[in-house]
Amino acid sequence: LAIQKERRGEDHPDVKRMLHSLALEYKVRNRHDDAFRCLDEAIELAADCTEEKTRLLTCLGNMYKSRRMYTNAMDTYLMSIACLTDTGVSVDNPQLAMLVRMVKRLEIQNRLHSQNHELSSVS
Fold first, then answer.
1. Which of 8, 50, 61, 92 is most open to solvent, judged by the fewest CB atoms within 10 Å of its CB?
2. How many whole angstroms separate alpha carbon 37 and alpha carbon 123?
3. Which pLDDT does position 8 carry in this prediction?
């Protein structure tokens, strides 16, 4: 990664793709902090709202969701939706529809999680 950054520059698409791939590898190896760090860096390098940035944000949201960090996941999915709509996709875009469904599911999971937490603290 360091060699790619030096040779091609930090904002080269290959560097962002490599960071994304590393994040996925770290996730598989349960090295979640490293995975989050790689995705955060890739997102920061992808300054403009592009399909690539939308994919990175969606991946980050998925990681938050898998770690049961539902509020973070929802916020990240909403950023992904905003970024995707900034690219000018139509309202019937399948990726946009998928992200909206994911946010709706997270809203339900957040409510259930809050209710379960309240019930357990009452007991």
1. 92
2. 38
3. 66
Percentages of the chain per state (helix, strand, coil), in multiples of 5: 80, 0, 20
pLDDT band of 62, cuts 50, 70, 90? very high
Angstrom distance (rounded) from CA 37 to CA 66: 16
Whole-number Å distance between alpha carbons of 102 and 2: 35
Instruction: At 116, give phi and psi (nearest 5°).
Output: -65, -40
pLDDT for 21 beyond 80: yes
Residue 26 confidence class, pLDDT cut points 50, 70, 90 = very high
Instruction: Give me the amino acid identity at 14.
Output: D
Residue 58, C-beta contacts closer than 8 angstroms, at least 6 positions apart: 76, 77, 80, 95, 99
CB 80 within 8 A of CB 57: yes
Dump pLDDT digits (tens) for 67-82: 989 899 999 999 999 9
| Token pair of 12 as six digits | 């080269």
Distance (Å) of CA 64 to CA 16, 24, 44, 74, 118 = 19, 13, 17, 9, 22
